[in-house]
């Protein structure tokens, strides 16, 4: 059974259609890579899944729960939107860490904010805080950053900052981890650090959606690939098949241009 089902999603900005009838599904424990030229709609699709943008039409389900249905015109409260976002852990291109917080504090922040909304927080705040801290240290250790937990973002390399961002995205145990071109702001050496972490997560069967321009990485790590162009899904299928033996002419042209570049 699919953990994520996306049906007929469209998105317009003013009079420009950015997403046009997007439909796909993702199985639990699988990694999906989304490829395509800049402006093809990849990032907008991720932002719609994470409720940073609202689609104009379509349906989004996670674990058979309807998170969005354009036929339901209910206006969701901020708290309801936050709850929907908990299904997705988001890793952005440029890290988006809070500069005033240490690596540890960045990872702890969301979990602490949610804990403070619980009825037993005041009476158990110290115990809850220590548990959240312990969890955050475990995640940063998993990212190879045990000796950097008290460093601020400006004291970390780009690769280290992105690994903090991955730890933060994992902190709330999302159903699906989403990466929006996670290496685009990094030089080749630091890119390798981050791709190694994502490969490790894939080997652990973490359910992921990865927007990437790293074609070899997508072929090797993803179970399936979607190629987008001009807001539509042109081709989707087994990762190796799409990269090595694309069926659609637009996919062939894109991969050809990419390899030439």
Describe this entry's structure for a reader.
By secondary structure, the chain is an alpha/beta fold. It starts with a strand and ends with a helix. Helix 3 packs antiparallel against helix 4 (121-142), helix 3 runs parallel beside helix 5 and helix 4 (121-142) crosses helix 5 (158-170). Strand 9 (224-229) and strand 10 (232-238) form a beta hairpin. The longest helix is centred in the middle third of the chain and has 22 residues, at 121-142. The radius of gyration is 19 Å and the shape is globular. The protein has 9 helices and 10 strands.
- Total number of β-strand segments? 10
Shape: globular
Percentage of β-strand residues: 25-35%
Strand order of the largest sheet: 6-7-8-3-9-10
Report the average pLDDT across residues. Answer: 93
> What kind of sheet is the major sheet?
6 strands, mixed
| Structural class computed from helices and strand pairing | alpha/beta
Q: SSE order in H/E notation?
A: EEEHEEHEHHHEHEHEEHH
Please tally the helical runs, counting DSSP H or I stretches of 4 or more residues.
9
Low-confidence stretches: none
Helix content: 40-55%
- Rounded to the nearest angstrom, the radius of gyration is 19 Å
> What's the N-to-C terminus distance?
39 Å
């Amino acid at each position: 059974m699919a953990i994520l089902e996306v049906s007929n999603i469209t998105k317009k900005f003013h009079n420009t259609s950015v997403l046009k009838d997007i439909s796909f599904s993702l199985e639990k424990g699988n990694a999906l890579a989304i490829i395509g030229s800049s402006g093809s709609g990849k990032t907008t699709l991720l932002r719609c899944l994470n409720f940073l943008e609202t689609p104009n039409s379509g349906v989004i389900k996670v674990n058979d729960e309807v998170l969005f249905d354009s036929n339901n015109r209910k206006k969701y409260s901020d708290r309801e939107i936050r709850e929907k976002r908990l299904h997705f852990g988001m890793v952005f291109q440029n890290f988006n860490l809070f500069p005033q917080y240490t690596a540890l504090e960045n990872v702890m922040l969301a979990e602490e904010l949610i804990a403070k909304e619980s009825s037993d927080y005041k009476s158990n705040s110290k115990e809850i805080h220590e548990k959240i801290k312990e969890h955050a240290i475990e995640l940063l250790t998993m990212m190879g950053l045990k000796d950097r937990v008290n460093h601020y973002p400006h004291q970390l390399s780009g690769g280290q900052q992105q690994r903090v961002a991955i730890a933060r995205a994992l902190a709330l145990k999302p159903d699906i981890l989403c990466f929006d071109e996670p290496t685009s702001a990094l030089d080749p050496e630091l890119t390798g650090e981050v791709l190694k972490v994502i490969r490790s997560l894939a080997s652990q069967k973490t359910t992921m959606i990865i927007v990437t321009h790293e074609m070899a990485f997508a072929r090797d790590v993803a179970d399936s690939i979607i190629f987008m162009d001009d807001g539509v899904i042109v081709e989707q299928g087994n990762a190796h098949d799409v990269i090595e033996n694309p069926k659609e002419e637009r996919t062939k042209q894109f991969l050809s241009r990419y390899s030439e570049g």
